[in-house]
């Protein structure tokens, strides 16, 4: 019960890494609020997470939505000990294919979304809180065709450092997690045929030193460490969980 008596907010907690993390946090004793936009999955997610969960609708790009979510979390939980700013979007973006819509989507969901999530919940963060920002292994090195996502995640990685300084006096720790290629529904949302998705995952796995994609649970365990008091001396860092892809 490493998160006993703690309350957590996980944006983008209705799928993939966020959902796996919510399950683990609840198993470790936390009450967890998860957010997402697609209400069609809310009943299933609530059934999977159980009574110690809240499933809330909101777009991280909207300060109005995030303020409403913060108010509901405050009312139900009283305050927050952990925030996992996890909601994000990645999409292939060779320079010549970038249009204003793609630019806005990637930058706004990943960067604006993190800024407004944190701004909305800031008054409710208890002393000693842990905030975890979800970045990506692509912010570490150059990768072909994913430049916008890499740039957005590099900005988020930078926010973890700056905010660590800004909130030292409140003893709020900010850290980042950089997942590598991880088995979640994300790539399946790119509009490709199922077979192409499968082939792409095989190609991705070949480029990973340990030989396979990560599981959402691999990232959840890293988030658990950063969320718990075991990491109380870890501030402003980025924990890379990528099977060695950016390091070897
Ligand atoms: N999977 C990977 O290989 C990988 C690698 C590196 C980093 N990451 C990062 O890990 C995080 C989670 O990704 P995932 O793979 O778990 O993806 P996923 O399975 O597609 O889950 C994404 C979650 O974010 C929510 N979301 C997306 N846009 C949102 C918005 N504008 N407002 C609120 N919620 C939003 C989604 O719900 P709705 O669509 O209903 O809003 C969903 O709950 C992202 O930040 C991603 O960039 C993933």
Summarize the structure.
The protein is of the alpha/beta class and 248 residues long. The chain has seven helices and nine strands, in the order E-H-E-H-E-H-E-H-E-H-E-E-H-E-H-E. Helix 1 (16-27) crosses helix 7 and helix 3 (63-77) packs parallel to helix 4 (100-121).
Quickly list its features:
248 residues; alpha/beta; Rossmann fold; seven-stranded parallel beta sheet; binds NADP nicotinamide-adenine-dinucleotide phosphate; oxidoreductase; KR_dom; NAD(P)-bd_dom_sf; Short-chain dehydrogenase/reductase SDR; oxidoreductase activity, acting on the CH-OH group of donors, NAD or NADP as acceptor
| Mean of all residue-level pLDDT scores | 97
Numbering strands along the chain, what is their spatial order in the largest sheet?
3-2-1-4-5-6-9
Order of helices and strands: EHEHEHEHEHEEHEHE
CATH class equals: Alpha Beta
Share of helical residues: 40-55%
Radius of gyration: 17 Å
Number of helices: 7
**Gross morphology:** globular
Low-confidence stretches: none
Q: What is the assembly state of the chains in this entry?
A: single chain
How many strands in all? 9
- Give the end-to-end Cα distance, rounded to a whole number of Å: 34 Å
């Amino acid at each position: 019960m490493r998160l006993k008596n703690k309350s957590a907010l996980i944006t983008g907690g209705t799928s993939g890494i966020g959902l796996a993390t919510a399950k683990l946090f609840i198993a470790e004793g936390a009450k967890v609020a998860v957010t997402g936009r697609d209400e069609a999955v809310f009943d299933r997610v609530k059934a999977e997470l159980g009574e110690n969960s809240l499933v809330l609708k909101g777009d991280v790009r909207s300060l109005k939505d995030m303020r409403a979510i913060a108010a509901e979390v405050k009312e139900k939980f009283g305050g927050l000990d952990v925030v996992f700013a996890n909601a994000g979007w990645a999409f292939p973006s060779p320079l010549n294919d970038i249009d204003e819509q793609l630019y806005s989507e990637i930058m706004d969901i990943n960067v604006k979304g993190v800024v407004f999530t944190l701004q909305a919940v800031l008054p409710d963060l208890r002393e000693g809180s842990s905030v975890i920002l979800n970045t990506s292994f692509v912010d570490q090195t150059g990768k072909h065709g994913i430049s916008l996502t890499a740039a957005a995640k590099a900005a988020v990685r930078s926010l973890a450092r700056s905010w660590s300084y800004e909130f030292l006096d409140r003893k709020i720790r900010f850290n980042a997690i950089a997942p590598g290629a991880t088995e979640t529904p994300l790539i399946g949302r790119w509009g490709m045929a199922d077979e192409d998705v499968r082939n792409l995952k095989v190609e991705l796995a070949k480029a990973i030193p340990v030989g396979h994609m990560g599981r959402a649970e691999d990232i959840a365990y890293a988030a658990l460490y950063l969320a718990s008091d075991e990491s109380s001396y870890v501030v402003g860092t980025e924990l890379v969980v990528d099977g060695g892809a950016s390091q070897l």
